[in-house]
Please model this.
Amino acid sequence: MNKIGFIGGGKMAGAIIKGIINSKWAKHDEIIVSDKNETALNNLQKSFKVNITDNNIEVVKNAKILLFAVKPFVLRDVLSEIKQYITNEHLILSIAAGISIKTIEDILPNTSVIRIMPNTPALVNEGMSAICKGNYTSEEQTNIALEIFKSVGKVIKSEEKYIDIITAISGSGPAFYYYIIDEIAKAGEKLGLDYETCLKLSSQTAYGSAKMIMESGITPEQLIINVTTPGGCTAVGNNILKENKISEILFDTIDKTRNKAYELGKN
Model:
């Protein structure tokens, strides 16, 4: 019996597999993965020496913890396929965006389900994940999910009613930060410094600033004050951001993204 089974062997599955092996939560031979893509399976086996199969039912029969890392539009079909093999000993972990816990519980009645919203920095072990437990899920099972996703970054527990906000902030959020980092770098390039140097400066500054917030215990507002000399360079830049109503632009970005996540979830 394997410790954990993955249905879906894409990049996010690979990141989680790498994390749980490195964290020693599971050994390579305690993991089984299914996928219809033979190349993806072979790459996982080559990289991590995990067990592989093209049969989802084989995974269900050989693992009690099942992590579904398939595209949202195929999840319902996959759940229907394996339904008769699911027992009350199984724990279902789903990272399929937009698919509610209720949708899964309706297909797999009385089953322990946890919905997770991870993000792509999990690929470099700096992910931010939120987990939401279902109606039949115990605290012990919730802790299992916490341990799995701690292996690829930070993780929080949340109620599912907040999942669309979480999707906007951390699920889609990396793309917004990439955009800002890139635009700052391009600004430096326009002013005369080469792009590669500007990108390094912008990226490391973003990384270091985030780390200051995470590790110093100082609020972002106070950190801004600490960097800003009245009438100085930073003060001029801060004023430009305020004059151009950057806070309203960012609120609108998160709000519209949340609304789209809600719409997708209804479908």
